[in-house]
Amino acid sequence: MKILGIDPGTRNLGYAVLEKDVNKITLIEAGLVKMKAENVQFQMTQMSEAIDQIFSAHKIDEVAIESMFYAYNPQSVLKLAQFRGALALKILQIFGNFAEYTPLQVKKSVTGKAKAAKEQVAFMVKRILGINKEIKPLDITDAIAIALTHANVMRLAPK
To answer: Which of 159, 146, 156, 127 is nearest to 62 (CA)?
Structure first.
């Protein structure tokens, strides 16, 4: 089973594809879609093309994205909400459904602490997957953590 995890952002969109077998989770691909600092409509187009490429490259079985967080700048929240809505629609058009997890749920799932720092999440992602090299930027480890969270939820779900 392949799980796509997405950390949405209007400048940097992290993504990760994990393969989950009965006893093992393997990182297949992870990366960053860097959007140009244009208007949000242009960024939505860039994101849409990137999502098409990810789905074309992999047979995805499950999709998980991080839900909105609260920010202090209303303009940033509005822009991210528009972008995230376009991302949700794109995933629904291609795949049909997705799971959502709050940042606190993801942090708790991966580190055991809901208020863990991003660096702690990155450390645990590497440890869980047995990765020795540095993964930068943190948007990528966040996407991996989202996919891991979904894998954990699926493991615990009744059959």
So the answer is: 146
The H-assigned helical ranges of the chain are 40-57, 74-94, 103-111, 118-129, 138-156
Two tokens, residue 151:
């894998």
Q: What is the pLDDT of residues 111-133, one digit of tens each?
A: 999 999 999 999 999 999 999 99
Q: Look at residue 74 and give its three-state secondary structure.
A: helix
Pairing assessment for the beta strands 62-66 and 12-20 based on DSSP bridges? unpaired
The overall pTM is greater than 0.85: yes
Query: Does residue 142 have an active-site annotation?
Result: no
Please identify which of the residues 19, 49, 62, 66 carries the catalytic annotation.
66
